[in-house]
Design goal:
about 220 residues; alpha+beta; NADH Oxidase; four-stranded antiparallel sheet
């Protein structure tokens, strides 16, 4: 696997920022968006449970409905893509069994060979209180968000992670509750507007020695 030059990766991460104004006329090429969907699919999660679903909201009318519940942030309607990162509710032993079945099928091995793995997952899920399981699974969704933002930057696609929305309203408008999911964070993606005042601001970060400590 050829490595991305470190300088190229850092240049992409320095280039990215949380876009406040998108150019509504610019669209992400189909192959680039397909790669971003694949990056979501390939995101890591605890035990590999993948306790999520990523809802890509394409209907303009739905986006307009979501806007008042997004603190009026225009990225919701102007960006080419709007992705709602949702966690699966009530994750339990059945989800462990589903993963075991999928693993056995993909790797061509009997499910019985994964009994130890299944027991470990099932034990963790049954011993942890349901509210704590929801918090645990929700953290996995944010891992996927990080992968999405990094991949977008590497592909030259602008993005903006957004927690400034009303999850309950999103869940109702998009019918997520009936599907067994709950929104946790959203991300818009597309291309920055030429007059986005935030594009030219210097990135503010603390010195490396303040945030990375070798012990």
């Amino acid at each position: 696997m050829p490595a991305v030059p470190p300088s190229d990766l850092l240049a992409a991460l320095n280039w990215r920022y949380a876009v406040k104004k998108f150019d509504a006329t610019k669209k992400i090429p189909a192959d680039t968006w397909a790669a971003l969907e694949q990056c979501l699919l390939l995101s890591p999660s605890s035990y590999g449970l993948q306790p999520w679903k990523f809802f890509v909201v394409e209907t303009p009318a739905l986006r307009e409905q979501l806007l008042p519940h997004s603190w009026g942030q225009r990225q919701i309607v102007d960006a080419d893509k709007l992705v709602v990162f949702a966690v699966k509710k009530d994750v339990g032993v059945a989800d462990a069994d589903r993963l075991i079945a999928r693993t056995a099928a993909v790797r061509g091995i009997p499910a019985d060979a994964l009994a130890g793995y299944r027991g470990m997952m099932a034990g963790s899920l049954t011993k942890t209180p349901p509210d704590a399981v929801d918090v645990w699974m929700s953290r996995q969704v944010f891992i996927a968000l990080g992968v999405f933002l990094t991949t977008a930057a590497a592909l030259g696609v602008d993005a903006c992670p957004m927690e400034g929305f009303v999850p309950e309203q999103y869940d109702e408008i998009l019918g997520l509750t009936a599907k067994g999911y709950a929104s946790r964070v959203v991300a818009t993606a597309g291309y920055r507007a030429a007059d986005d005042a935030y594009a030219g601001l210097k990135k503010v970060r603390y010195e490396l020695g303040e945030v990375v400590e070798k012990v």
